[in-house]
């Protein structure tokens, strides 16, 4: 009987975590696209770091479409790191 009471609580907790990653995914991905465009405009589009960032962002967008928001947020954050590296000339 206790399991039936705890199941809805666990499901609701899982939904709230998904919502926070959904927002983080969207925000990180939007920021990364803007930063990538800026890096391209500044002439850093030929660097290895830029290419890594673009690949990560494509993967993040795919994860966003399949509602894998945690992975999307992580990949977007990594992409932003590589964009910063690109702009620094590394």
Structural features, described:
The protein has 90 residues and is mainly alpha-helical. It has a domain at 29-88. The chain is built from three helices and no strands. The protein has helices spanning 2-41, 48-65, 69-87. α1 runs antiparallel to α2 (48-65), α1 runs parallel beside α3 and α2 (48-65) packs antiparallel against α3. Mean pLDDT is 84; it is low at 6-13.
Features of the shown structure:
3 helices, mainly alpha, 90 residues
What is Rg? 17 Å
Helical fraction equals over 70%
What's the number of extended β-strand segments?
0
General shape: elongated
Structure classification? mainly alpha
Strand content: under 5%
User: Could you give a short account of the major beta sheet?
Assistant: none
Number of helices: 3
- Beginning-to-end CA distance, first to last residue: 59 Å
Protein name: Lipoprotein
What topology does this entry show?
Blueprint: H1 2-41, H2 48-65, H3 69-87
Helix pairs in contact: 1-2, 1-3, 2-3
Short structural summary:
This protein has 90 residues and is mainly α. Helices cover 86% and strands 0% of the residues. Helix 1 (2-41) packs antiparallel against helix 2, helix 1 (2-41) runs parallel beside helix 3 (69-87) and helix 2 packs antiparallel against helix 3.
